[in-house]
Design brief:
Elements (H helix, E strand, L loop, with lengths): L3 H14 L10 H7 L3 H25 L8 H23 L1 H7 L10 H9 L6 H31 L1 E2 L4 H4 L7 E2 L11 H34 L1
Antiparallel strand pairs: 1-2
Helix pairs in contact: 1-7, 3-4, 3-6, 3-7, 4-5, 4-6
Amino acid sequence: MTDNNTILQTFRNGLWDDNPGLVQLLGLCPLLAITTTFVNGLGLGIATLFVVTCSNVLVSATRAWIRSEIRIPMYVLIIASLVTCIELIFKAYMPALDRTLGIFIPLIVTNCAIVARAEVFASRNPIGASMLDGLAMGTGFAALLCAIGAFRELIGRGSIMANLDMFFGGEPLSGLVIVDGGFLLAVLPPGAFFSLALAVAGKNHLDRRRKNAAKQGDRIHVR
């Protein structure tokens, strides 16, 4: 049975300490390409969260029967099956969002972060721990997608959470408009690299400050 401290530490690893996109720098192709808006990031984040969690569970459940020589092709087959399921769900219930995300939903199959979790964690741990790891890592990746999407949309378009109707249907939603227009570079490819660089730099700065504060606290305690 997993205790609360283990659950909190697992989610802290996924969201911050070992975030797949922010620390491991995996899955950067969809992260950089699709995060022009918050809704795009949220849509791809939900799809990735579903795939990484379910693939971890299935890999863990079948690890005793998967021969080591063919484990990677089997992981890819499992991931591809799950991606097909989530793609059909998007096409059926969120067709506008599916058209916007385009090829990047099928490309989840090639996301290194998902294959890495299957190989490094799910293939060596029980189902419960693997599911928790998938939820944590998937949530961390989805949170980064949403954060970068929101930042680029705000700077580049002057709005936030526009086009939420792609999730819920109904009349088009303009979201919260902050200013009329924005800095176009933010929604172009260079803006994706700048946004990710700022996120990585901000995390490293906060981690450095935390370590320095901990060192100062240890020195005061020793004195």
